[in-house]
Amino acid sequence: MGIPTKQAWLRRLLRGIALLAALQTPALAADAVRPTTAAAHRPAGVPADYVVTPFGYFHPSCVQEIRPGETLQADGRIRAADGGLRAAVACRHARFGPQGEAIGQNGPAPKPQASTDDQINGWVLDTELVTSSAYAGISANWTVPAAPASSDGQVVYFFPGLQDRNNVQSILQPVLGWNAFNDNRWTIASWNCCRDGAVNYSTPQATASGNQIVGTVQNNCAAGTATCTSWNIVTRDATRNVASTLSRTSNYGQTFNWAFGGVLEVYGVNSCDDYPSDGAMSFTAVRLLDVNKQPITQPAKLGWSANVLQQQAGCNLNAAASPTVSSLSY
Question: Which CATH class is domain 118-329?
Fold first, then answer.
């Protein structure tokens, strides 16, 4: 066989590059799935090597990816599809809330007070609802917004979710994130945090502005079970038909009676241009399941509270809610 010409060699190289790109879709490349480093915009007191999560700032060793086919056990170990187990994350480092406040290993990250700085970190807007019993699930639809006009290392999250108002150990949430994984693009992932100081997230998937996202949190127990030990969190891109899923993840002993129809959470936002440039997001078809796994439809039981948790000069920060729609503007 003769020596290939320069043109033939180049064609083979390009085919190889295309094949490698295809193999990395739809999941992100293996070296791109670590959460964004906090160095650029961290509050005073947060170490430079910590990473940004929807729960504040954590040491990288306290954050673990749950891969497709794996399940997170109540004791923190990870069970593979073949039944094998790998050890739980051994988190031996302090964690910090959005404003840089130190938080105990199992302590919740409190909703932030109004910021006194130009930079915004933490929950900005939300809609929420509390029941006297328990929720068996929540789901919502939303559209991936435009990218921010400015991209300077900020992280932006949107999600619905469930939490225990009386015993905050973790929050279950299907999350859309901008620059969530050092990537300056939109991704989806499902998260459970923060038992024993550990953060768990499913393998992220890339998405794009205009795509339709469906987020679902639902328990795997029989109807009527108030404190279910097993939950599925699914963040699905319906446009691309791909999902990022945490299967059979633990409730860590919680009874989920606190629902969030839509949340905007940010880190390192210095100006209005750091928010998505289209200025608004609506979570539609918001649906709650009661403890018997029946959809809650009575308006009297769907009196969502809409909250502006932080203000930023010149930005149109506002929240509104109806029984099935949570609208956020920024």
Answer: mainly beta
